[in-house]
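Lay summary

Proteins are chains of building blocks that fold into shapes. Our project writes down both the chain and a compact code for its shape. Here are two examples, one after the other.
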Amino acid sequence: MKESFFKNGQKATSQNGDVLTYFYKSGPVKARGKFVADLMQGKWVFNREDGSLWQIGHFKDNMKHGEWIRYDKTGKVEYQECFVLGKIVKK
């Protein structure tokens, strides 16, 4: 994936090797993770627009696969789930 930009000129996406980064229109990093052959793979980290951690999850071929943890705005775990090829296997 090549770099893309919002209409305001702010970078929307950027790829460095096999790491793809998505940005909010206001500039902060929205999400970052491994992107191979146009597919999300492995660990991805998602942030809120204020920069705080929102969730960490794993992908296999664009499907949730492995542990997913979501955090509230104070950093406390809201929920933790496990997926296999997009389907929840453990809550």
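And here is the second example, written the same way.
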Amino acid sequence: MRNKSPLSISRFLLALMMAVLACNLPFITSPPSQAPDVPPALVTVPTTSADTPTASTPTVAVAHLMRPSDTAPIQGSFVYDVDTTGTGPEGRAPYGDSYKINRLERPFEQNMTYVPDLDIVTFNLNKDTNWYYISIQLSGTNPNDSHDIDYGVEIDLNHDGFGDYLVWAHPPYTSAWDASNVKVFKDTNHDTGGLSGEQSDAPFNGNGYDKIIFDGGQGDDPDLAWVRIGVGQYATVQFAIKKLLPGSSFMMGVWADAGLKDATKFDYNDRFTEEQAGSPERNEKYYPLKALFAVDNTCWEAFGFKATGYEPKLCPREEPKPGTKTSCQDPQQYYVDQAGCIAAGCRWCTYATGGMGCEIPHCTAP
């Protein structure tokens, strides 16, 4: 065995001394342990059923390029809905809730308390160079009441009874044009009318208006839709919609909703049977309201084209004034309103007055 040289021993002793010194120096420490990088949690704003189908995004300032006119026209012809003012305090609608064809006259809480600000009386459409203005007259005067009412405009581009767009606004409302509380929904798979476009197809489980294309200014066009209130006697609520959205030929109806408020469940009469939904008319066998309440809608009016009269959900033709007798011809074709039916010399048939065959109120020969 060879002896180590003095040089090797010296090198070993030097390395040993340096190691001892390093272990005792206060400024040489091990780096502190660090937690691994974790991405921050994504924060989303919780949504209600009215905000379906997708989660809301954080508020972002919107730069608007154009606004509707403050002096929008309110003129021309009006589309009339059933006015429940007279019988509402009695906890009933006078008529006009034709459930099987999606005509809902339900401006009541589930306990049949009447809500005037849910009761649509008329709507009206006017236009200027860039905008359509839809004015909704309510029986009440306070769209910001405690019922948290949403108002809407439903648009059918190809006149088939299936809505293509739904412009929807939620409170609070102001007297100035506001886009921050407006959404525009689109139906991408043609199922807003269930299977038939008009008739109740309950129970039906489609997804209704399944895509949001405008949310408070967020979307391809930051100026697409606006709402304001208190414009005048015939415009308790008023919408302004860019003309490019519906184009020049379409059908349209309006909504007031403090109940389901869920765009993915349109049409509501496809979600519940009439027995499940209940009825607001005391002479109907399903009275009172049950699953479907606090909602009012209108028939659809044709704009930009001449209706054939066979379009689903189309508003009835002009009815004779009450007291003006005419011959009772094609009563079910011409009259869906009790007053117009009787004024024409026809008979208004209901379950209570006509028995079997009159479960759905309709106009018939005397």
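What can we say about the second shape? The radius of gyration is 32 Å.
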